[in-house]
């Protein structure tokens, strides 16, 4: 039996997730789809957790705006949003008007700060 030089120098490749010996393609990194999924889920766990938390806050803000803004345009005191659990640090976009007014949006539901801590709630595409 004759041994090829490449066979002597070939490293034993192991699955990045479970450590089992790999067989097959030279560029193979995982022994199964399950190991590939486990590895990538573990690798992205922190990113996914952050995204989930932000999405939860945005959904909550959206739900609160929808509950107060049933007509497409309404005015209410900032304290009502705050007491409902609204988080003013989270929004999806900002709209600056030509009259230099700033609206903050959670998807299609927006708000603008008025005088004396009042807020105007609006819905994109809806005229009030």
Low-confidence stretches: none
Count of discrete domains: 1
The strands making up the biggest β-sheet line up spatially as 1-5-4-3-2
Q: What is the terminal separation in angstroms?
A: 87 Å
Beta-strand portion reads 15-25%
Number of DSSP-assigned strands: 5
The number of helices is 3
Broad structural category? alpha+beta
Please bin the fraction of helical residues.
Answer: 25-40%
The SSE string, one letter per element, is HHEHEEEE
Average of per-residue pLDDT values: 89
Main pleated-sheet profile: 5 strands, antiparallel
Q: Given the C-alpha coordinates, what overall shape results?
A: rod-shaped
Whole-angstrom Rg: 27 Å
Describe this structure in words.
There is one protein chain. This protein has helices at residues 5-9, 33-68, 78-83, and strands spanning 73-77, 93-96, 102-106, 109-113, 118-123. The chain is of the alpha+beta class. It has 3 helices and 5 strands. It has one domain (30-123). Strands 1-5-4-3-2 form a 5-stranded antiparallel β-sheet.
């Amino acid at each position: 039996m004759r041994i090829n030089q490449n066979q002597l120098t070939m490293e034993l490749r192991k699955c990045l997730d479970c450590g089992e010996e790999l067989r097959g393609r030279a560029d193979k990194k995982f022994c199964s789809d399950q190991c590939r999924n486990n590895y990538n889920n573990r690798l992205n766990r922190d990113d996914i957790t952050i995204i989930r938390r932000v999405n939860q806050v945005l959904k909550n803000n959206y739900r609160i705006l929808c509950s107060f803004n049933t007509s497409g345009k309404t005015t209410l005191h900032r304290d009502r949003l705050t007491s409902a659990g609204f988080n003013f640090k989270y929004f999806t976009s900002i709209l600056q008007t030509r009259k230099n007014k700033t609206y903050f949006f959670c998807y299609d539901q927006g708000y603008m700060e008025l005088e004396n801590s009042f807020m105007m709630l609006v819905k994109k595409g809806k005229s009030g």
